[in-house]
Design brief:
Protein name: PhoH-like ATPase
CATH topology of the largest domain: Rossmann fold
Number of strands: 18
Shape: elongated
Family: Belongs to the PhoH family. In the N-terminal section; belongs to the PINc/VapC protein family.
GO molecular function: ATP binding
Strand content: 15-25%
Structural class: alpha/beta
Pfam families: PhoH (PF02562), PIN_4 (PF13638)
Radius of gyration: 26 Å
Domain PIN: 10-142
Length: 470
């Protein structure tokens, strides 16, 4: 590992993928100098054409650079252009152009290797400063380390540090006892129970655990719990817990019953009129889509709370693209909607178990009239009222993409984000930098949001073994 002198002036050389990942990256390096080599400008130029997200981002970065360099003379461009900041000292932007750059023998000519050569040349020229390459390309970081070039990943927009993990959304106390009596003793808090119409609220006074947050589950067991509640209000010295509806026996959601505390909590979040945003994480087969569709169907067809269901996901495949797809928007999205159709078939089978094929077909046609499948790129500018919006595979969206979808919410709209940060197919996104992680982190203290991580796999022992062993 190359040591960086923290007291010396720092020059950050940015790779193209950093600017594509975060167009505002130029403003994230405080008072230090940001260097954009000519190689990066050329790569931005190659990416600027088209309607894909990468093209829009490249054009946004180019416009930012154009604004910063407007009305600036050539000497200032070479020596450094002030980067304005709202608070603190200004940074500087420097455009790096070497006309006599020598290749790094024996490396072949490529944009990555040219960027390395430019960084090495700048390091040799600026012995008074620490020259640091910033890239999200793992292989480039390995090459830079081999050449003795200080290198870093771009971490500014991460939702969590490496030592952190996505919040679990639940706190289980196995020794709480019936009605949570053991829990209050272990926490040394005073408890007052109130009944408010159809709700039972526990008002706690005392030292509240620091890890408690709004919209989380507090339970005495993962399985067969006798006490399950959601945190409605929390502070250092007080908390309000509301008992959950028991969806294990009797009461169901579109015929679906919960198998454990986390699933019961999930169904409560999905059916809660006071929760506008639900994020559900979990590995494959934990029932994320199944329970969400059940709640959507119940609130659209039975209780009539919503007028329609909109289902969307990032059209990103695990392998090679299959090429041009003809047809309407829904037909183009159909190859990525297998999970939706599979779960809808299972729900119809369970709901109409023993009924005629005609009844099942009639229900399917009714659902088809209420369900819309939409591509995320076509959601810009829309306002969704009276809608149950499901965003599947949310881990494959960037934070900015998820923001553009969440801000589509209009009157009486509920948004549910489903994802598994262990299965990210988008290049340069990780479990810490994906949109799912950002949404969970930023909404954890909002009273109308809830998050849960599902643990038990409901598919088969093979699916469970695959998740654990592979």
């Amino acid at each position: 590992m190359v040591r960086i002198d923290k007291k010396a002036t720092r020059l950050y050389v940015l790779d193209t993928n950093v600017l594509i990942h975060d167009p505002a990256a130029l403003y994230q390096f405080d008072e230090h100098e940001v260097v954009i080599p000519m190689t990066v400008l050329e790569e931005l130029d190659k990416h600027k054409n088209g309607i894909r997200e990468i093209a829009r981002t490249a054009r946004q970065v180019s416009r930012t650079l154009s604004d910063l360099t407007a009305n600036v003379d050539i000497d200032q461009i070479r020596d450094g252009i002030p980067i304005p900041r709202l608070t603190g000292p200004e940074g500087r932007l420097r455009l790096l152009c070497y006309t006599d750059l020598k290749a790094l023998d024996p490396l072949e000519e490529s944009p990555d290797n040219r960027l390395l050569a430019e960084t090495c040349r700048l390091r040799d020229e600026r012995q008074d400063a620490s020259v640091i390459l910033v890239t999200k390309d793992i292989n480039l970081r390995v090459k830079a380390a081999a050449l003795g070039v200080p290198v870093e990943d771009y971490l500014t927009d991460r939702a969590f540090d490496d030592s952190d993990a996505m919040i679990d959304g639940a706190r289980i106390y196995p020794d709480a006892g019936h009605d949570g009596s053991g829990l209050w003793d272990s926490l040394a808090v005073d408890v007052k129970v109130e009944r408010q119409e159809h709700r039972v609220v526990y008002r706690l006074a005392g030292d509240i655990p620091r890890e408690w947050h709004l919209g989380m589950l507090v339970s005495d067991s993962d399985n067969g719990a006798s006490f399950e509640a959601i945190v409605r209000e929390v502070g250092p010295k007080h908390a309000h817990l509301e008992l959950l509806t028991n969806y294990r026996h009797g009461t169901s959601v579109w015929g679906v019953h919960a198998h454990d505390s986390r699933q019961n909590f999930t169904l409560n979040l999905l059916m809660d009129d006071d929760i506008d945003l639900v994020t559900i994480a979990g590995s494959a087969g934990t029932g994320k889509t199944f329970m969400t569709l059940a709640a959507a169907f119940q609130q659209t067809l039975d209780t009539k709370r919503f007028e329609r269901i909109v289902f969307t996901r990032a059209p990103i495949s695990m392998s090679e693209d299959i090429g041009f797809l003809p047809g309407t928007e829904e037909e183009k999205m159909s190859p990525w909607m297998g999970a939706f159709h599979d779960n809808m078939d299972n729900l119809l089978r369970d709901e109409h178990d023993g009924s005629s094929t005609w009844n099942q077909d009639a229900t399917r046609q009714l659902l088809g009239s209420r369900v819309q499948i939409r591509a995320p790129g076509f959601m810009r500018g829309r306002t969704l009222n009276d809608t149950f919006l499901i965003i599947d595979e949310a881990q494959n969206f960037t934070p900015k993409q998820l923001k553009s979808l969440i801000t589509r919410a209009g009157r009486n709209t509920k948004i549910v984000c489903l994802g598994n940060v262990g299965q990210i197919d988008t290049p340069y996104l990780t479990a810490n930098t994906c949109g799912m992680a950002a949404v969970v982190q930023h909404f954890r203290d909002w009273p109308h949001a809830g998050h849960v991580t599902l643990k038990s796999v409901e598919r088969s022992r093979l699916a469970l073994a695959g998740e654990e062993l592979l």
